[in-house]
């Protein structure tokens, strides 16, 4: 028996638009973000997906994206579990700063290392490795068993928490995941084998 896992990064947020480091801060979606979330739901519906359960983070941009997508699917009442383990990477002292201002303060190279390296955290924040350290156990103990029972599960979360999941699902190294980008509002569909490996991956682009 195999199940299906769908990963969905939230739609564009107000701080994405303003080029700010967001992390655990809680801005809302932009109008474009709302349309991206609805579009994700429409494409999932057109592809015939129906979900048994949804997971999301404690941050409103992911929760609202999930709500909007489920509305388009006609599944507004779907049981949803929220957990801090799925929150975006904590950017620490960078949170709320404009990315260009951060480059001026610390230098292009240092900010690039903080943003893109696997295991170097910004001051007071988390690296991608740190983010994975909370995402992976939650996935293995709480989400994966539902998928392996044959259920169809939707996870609406964030760029870095989902990158950590993609890394685990696809067996990527720390070097390989550095170049992986997760687009806003684009569902990534994994069908899993009974041994939890990926049988098939589909990206439902606009």
Structure write-up:
The protein is of the alpha/beta class. The chain is 43% helix and 15% strand. It contains eight helices and six strands, in the order βααβαβαααβααββ. The protein has a six-stranded mixed sheet. α2 crosses α3 (60-73), α4 (99-106) packs across α5 (108-116) and α6 crosses α7. The protein is globular. Catalyzes the interconversion of 2-phosphoglycerate and 3-phosphoglycerate. This is 2,3-bisphosphoglycerate-dependent phosphoglycerate mutase. Substrate binds at residues 9-16, 22-23, 61, 88-91, 99, 115-116, 159-160.
Question: What average pLDDT do the residues reach?
Answer: 96
Question: What is the CATH homologous superfamily assignment?
Answer: Phosphoglycerate mutase-like
What percent of the residues sit in helical stretches (DSSP H or I)?
Answer: 40-55%
The oligomeric status of these chains comes to single chain
Strand content: 5-15%
Helix count, DSSP H or I runs of 4 or more residues: 8
Order of helices and strands: EHHEHEHHHEHHEE
Tally of strands: 6
C-alpha termini separation = 30 Å
CATH class: Alpha Beta
CATH topology: Rossmann fold
Q: What are the segments in which pLDDT stays under 50 over at least 5 consecutive residues?
A: none
CATH-defined architecture: 3-Layer(aba) Sandwich
Q: What does the overall shape look like?
A: globular
Family: Belongs to the phosphoglycerate mutase family. BPG-dependent PGAM subfamily.
Catalytic activity: (2R)-2-phosphoglycerate = (2R)-3-phosphoglycerate
Pathway: Carbohydrate degradation; glycolysis; pyruvate from D-glyceraldehyde 3-phosphate: step 3/5
Organism: Fulvimarina manganoxydans
